[in-house]
Write a structure and sequence with these properties.
alpha+beta, two-stranded antiparallel ribbon, about 20% strand
Length: about 290
């Protein structure tokens, strides 16, 4: 090299490090501390093990055991520990978490970051999801899955347009894709029927028009769509009505009224079948709705 012969040396040397003649690397001192080697393992190997699981989606128990063995082998090599050293002691010596606990920690960090209120990426994903589902609902929407109903209340004849079945105006709202409730559940569901209730008594009169739901249960007294009738009606705990209608006015001293309840699923109950005064039946039909007790 540079017109000079290189001197022969029985011990190969590279960058100031002398190796054994057979390159077995036995008893070789790399001049790196155990802490540095542990950091290198965490940065180059364990990071791949931990974060790759987010891409793969899941890891089976067998694969998890294989990854644990890889980490144990690295710890034994760094700290010159025996081959039969227990996994518990290996983690204690290296101050490392097991692969399973490490993945749980990464999952927790990910979800804590994802649910932050100021996360533009999550907001963008939610907006995209809503747009996709709105398009799907418009595409699949048919009368089989929903019903449109009038939605109004008349208290002591303060809304005559709601009481006249042949009077149509902007003040009588037709609720499209009407939602209502099921007993003992907090969610809203697509309505199956429309309801019209007219009741009088104790100096008060009510007309209620909205949507209701047949939940399909076998309890007849809890299914308002199956009890269309004229007779005594209780307005207390009236179940099945769309909660957007306010019922504060209905909390009177007496809750039992004389009236007619009509339920239908084809014409928004738009029929003129009620008189101002209801003629009592010879035998009263007592139907008291005991809902949401």
């Amino acid at each position: 090299m540079y017109k000079e012969l290189l001197s022969y040396n029985d011990e190969p040397t590279f960058l100031g490090i002398t190796f054994d003649p057979h390159f077995t690397f036995m008893n070789q001192n790399w001049s790196l501390s155990k802490e540095t080697l542990t950091t290198i393992y965490q940065s180059l190997i364990r990071s791949v093990i931990g974060y790759s699981s987010r891409i793969i989606g899941r890891i089976s128990k067998d694969k998890l055991k294989t990854l644990e063995r890889i980490q144990n082998a690295a710890i034994k090599s760094i700290y010159n520990l025996k081959y039969d050293e227990s996994s518990e002691n290996l983690l204690k010596v290296s101050s490392l978490l097991s692969i399973k606990l490490r993945m749980n920690e990464l999952n927790e960090r990910f979800f804590n970051s994802a649910i932050q209120p100021q996360n533009p990426l999550i907001d963008e994903l939610i907006d995209e999801y809503l747009k996709i589902n709105e398009a799907r609902l418009k595409y699949y929407k048919t009368p089989l899955y929903t019903i449109n109903c009038f939605e109004c209340v008349s208290y002591n004849n303060d809304n005559p347009e709601c009481e006249d079945p042949f009077f149509r105006s902007e003040n009588i709202t037709i609720k499209e894709n009407c939602l209502t409730s099921i007993p003992y559940k907090n969610d809203f569901y697509r309505a199956t029927h429309c309801l019209k209730l007219k009741a009088e008594g104790h100096g008060y009169s009510y007309v209620i028009r909205t949507c209701v739901l047949d939940s399909g249960s076998g309890k007849m007294d809890q299914e308002i769509v199956r009890v269309s009738h004229c007779g005594l009606i209780s307005l207390e705990n009236f179940h099945g009505i769309n909660f957007t209608i306010k019922f504060d006015k209905f909390k009177t001293l007496w809750n039992v009224f004389n009236g007619c309840l009509s339920v239908c699923n084809y014409d928004e109950c738009n029929r003129a079948a009620y008189k101002r005064t209801m003629t009592p039946y010879p035998i009263w039909i007592f139907v008291i709705f005991n809902f949401l007790k």
